[in-house]
Design goal:
By secondary structure, the protein is α/β, with parallel strands linked by helices. It folds into two domains: 122 residues, Rossmann fold (3-Layer(aba) Sandwich), CATH 3.40.50; 44 residues. Helix 2 runs antiparallel to helix 3 and helix 3 packs across helix 6. It is elongated. The N and C termini lie far apart (57 Å).
Length: 176
């Protein structure tokens, strides 16, 4: 099975996801980046993906860097390099027989270009919905795990629960 690599155009997501747009409009771009990274980290861990999040250094000049945060690779491009050109280059390099690259962006020109290099594409909205779905599933699993402890620590054993269930059925039939 191929390794799954998701390359995300960070500012494209910030400009599309409702809660991130709200933070951006409040001049809280750093907070929007942080929320994006946290949500993508949970998504990546749950789905078993490697994720690279790319930001244009044009919006934060002079800080070209690559670092790990929340098990994600975060890239701020060089001052003269756009996130689009970086993503296009990396998608071409990383997409091979062992790795399936998916690029998350709503930029149609970029989608076509990475698609021509064999990478898959996802719009900002598609990724947003996928992240939300994973978050809901994680919440359900967390609730199940939480209540598993209650079932394990129940003072009733299986035989008693079975008898109780039979008695409830018997009583409900009498009411009818």
């Amino acid at each position: 099975m191929k390794k799954q690599l998701l390359i995300v155009d960070g500012y494209n997501m910030i400009g599309s996801w409702p809660e991130l747009v709200q933070l951006k409009n409040q001049n809280k771009l750093e907070d929007a980046r942080e929320v994006l990274l946290q949500r993508l980290s949970n998504y990546a861990k749950y789905e078993g993906l490697e994720v690279i999040v790319v930001f244009d250094a044009q919006l934060v000049p002079g800080i070209q860097q690559t670092y790990k945060k929340y098990h994600l690779t975060v890239v701020f491009t060089k001052e003269e390099e756009t996130a689009d050109s970086y993503i296009e280059r990396i998608a071409g390099e990383k997409n091979d027989r062992l790795t399936q690259v998916t690029v998350a962006t709503s930029d149609l020109a970029e989608q076509w270009l990475v698609f021509s290099k064999g990478a898959l594409r996802a719009s900002a909205n598609e990724l947003y919905k996928n992240v939300q779905k994973s978050e809901r599933t994680i919440a359900i699993h967390a609730t199940d795990i939480h209540f598993q402890d209650f079932r394990r620590n129940s003072p009733w054993n299986l035989e008693q629960l079975s008898k109780l269930s039979e008695k409830m059925d018997e009583l409900s039939k009498k009411k009818e």
